[in-house]
Amino acid sequence: MPDNRPSGTYRVQVRPDFPLHVTAELVDYLADLGVSHLYSAPLLTAAPGSEHGYDVVDHSSVNPALGGADGLLRLSRALKAAGLGLVVDIVPNHAGIAVPHLNPTWWDILRRGQKSDFSHFYDIDWSRGRLLIPVLADSPDALDDLRAEDGELRYFDKRFPIADGTGDGTPRQVHDRQHYELVNWTRGDTELNYRRFFAITDLAGLRVDDPEVFDATHAEILRWYREGIAQGIRVDHPDGLRDPAGYFARLREAAPDAWIVVEKILEPGERLPAWPVDGSTGYDAMCLLNGVFVDTATEAFFDTLDRHLTGVTTSWQDLVHQAKYAVATGCLAAELTRLADLAPTVEDAPRALAELAACFPVYRSYLPAGSRHLAQARSEAGRRRPHLISALDQLTARLRNPTDELAIRFQQFTGAVMAKGVEDNAFYRWTRFVARNEVGSDPARFGATPDEFHEAALERRQEWPGSMTALATHDTKRGEDVRARLAVLAEVPGDWTEVVRRWIRFAPLPDPSLAHLIWQVAVGAWPISRERLQAYAEKAAREAGTGTSWLRPDESFETALRQMVDRIYDDPALHREVADFAASITPPGWSNSLGQKLLQLTMPGVPDVYQGTELWDHSLVDPDNRRPVDFAGRRALLNRIDDGWLPPVDATGAAKLLVASRVLRLRRQRPELFGSYRPVYAEGRAGHHAVAFDRGGVVAVATRLPIGLSRHGSWGDTSLSLDGHSWTEVFTNTSYGGNRLPVAELLHTYPVALLVKE
């Protein structure tokens, strides 16, 4: 890979209420903060009102709701004037079809069917007849509401084209002559004949494996690259692609010097395929960064608490299997049917394919690489369903063949099953310790040791030095500082057990597992408004699907849920107790936050700062983590720090801004200091409370398990062995020398330190 990597990026959720010209006004602040590149949410024209941009409807233009081409030009000029670059988020897997007339390729397919010049743009199974569009109300008479107006069929506010020469007769007669069939919206999960993004019927799968489709959907983005507007590309959801390796080869050929990172979610221990890219978007780093601040010795306490609260013993593996199988046979049943149709001679093919997907240990394989994952799935599926062994053997013989259509589509299927089954379901059911319920993490792994962290960091430097590191994204389940504070619970398992058992009795919920999740989130994000916690509780309950769901909301359960949350705010004694407990874990949570931020910014890779997280960020899952950011307040704090203010570790979060700005500036100004990696071990009674490493001229030191450290009576005789040079600690501008440096002296002001060799 060319050495084109940024020194640090800053993710901005460019959206209609924060468009490109407003983003351009941030550039001077981002330059002062120390990043080298602004990293933007998708910028192509998306569906009306889209707040995220992942539902592109027109690949040929910048979204006018964001400011259009003029807005992008204004941002580009501002970035160049400040010496910054641009990384753009692109969406090759799918396109938005919720408003058909705004997507010219989809509209033409609806109008002309297989004769459309764009019929090959989307992954449509025309062998099953007309293109099914699930938009009708759940009523046998829904088609009676169709209208024929202005050469279109209209169903309430939805518009559909009429094929040439088919417009005579009643609206129903006209409808029956079209290349599409409007059907009950509930049939979307079971009878659809176009590939979707996960289970979202408004996002249709693209065929970017076709060179013509690739060229059409990437022309505008690649123009930005050629003209120097964008220097980096972040690729969304490569697991949905038919041929990821081929796609990345084509993208690299078209953008040979671009920094390319991919949203590939790696399970612990899984390696990124050898694609011609610079690395992943950093979920694997996030898992380790949070885990190293968790006390792994208390796992048994949380197992016991979980059994006591729920009354059941369920392993993470069994829960994941159950959730994935339900997804494969439920909301992804249409995709399962399409797979099974490719194996008509295999008895019980649907159940066997669903079982294999439920047992698949990673998101997907990339044949021929990853065939061992299929072997693991076959073994586990046979153990769980012995009666399906014959079908499993017949199917796996084909699923090993990279050229078999069944194998190609199965690889696309398993990623969707994993994402929907684990991220959007099991994470909300397995609630023993939700600090670890994060994308790219395995909640069954309670934490990570410093040695595991060092081993992964060394591997990253050797194999993927240009890979992104992250602590928060628009897809994370909890903000980085929520997770950091929740990690403190592992140090006070007895205290947590006492209060949460009392709270659950005082404010009961029919689903105690969900209740445990909400109580953890409440103390992790406190102080949090009633409205935000209510919105989170409703989303969490519907994702869990135990007491209520998105498809069939249970009003009685949701009423009980609202009453539980309301009681936190309406009962003075409970409110005070929750606030007091949150206050007790907040200072050690700050220590964890600063520690994980320092490690993320200094470890091998390209660090990304998600918008706003240079101060404390206690956001929850989207849309909560897309809330507006007070950039004016951040500017003012950064100016004070630059004027010499040494901020305390307190509620302002300015200490985190100090850490972020000083490390980011150093990485941008002196990249040669970050070329190697060597673990540094503290010696002494409290040595295991430090995690440190030398990057080749910079030594980062962070405190871990701060409550346990205080029980030791602080650092005592613990020291770091240095090489005898003089060092400057960046955050306090203090000089140190000698071969041994007392940690108590180094970490007197902050729980973190960054030493630069003079």
From TrEMBL:
**Molecular function GO terms recorded:** (1,4)-alpha-D-glucan 1-alpha-D-glucosylmutase activity
Q: What Enzyme Commission number(s) appear in the record? A: 5.4.99.15
Spell out the Gene3D superfamilies in the cross-references: Glycosidases (3.20.20.80), Maltooligosyl trehalose synthase, domain 2 (3.30.1590.10), Maltooligosyl trehalose synthase, domain 3 (1.10.150.200), Maltooligosyl trehalose synthase, domain 4 (1.10.10.470)
Under SMART domains, the record lists: Aamy (SM00642)
Name a Pfam family for this protein.
Answer: Alpha-amylase
> What keywords is this UniProt entry annotated with?
Isomerase
The record places domain Glycosyl hydrolase family 13 catalytic at: 13-662
Q: Please give the biological process terms from Gene Ontology that the record holds.
A: alpha-glucan catabolic process; trehalose biosynthetic process
Kindly indicate whether the keyword Isomerase belongs to this entry. Answer: yes
SUPFAM superfamilies tied to this protein:
(Trans)glycosidases
Q: Does the keyword Transmembrane apply?
A: no
Q: Which NCBIfam families match?
A: trehalose_TreY
Q: What is this protein called?
A: (1->4)-alpha-D-glucan 1-alpha-D-glucosylmutase
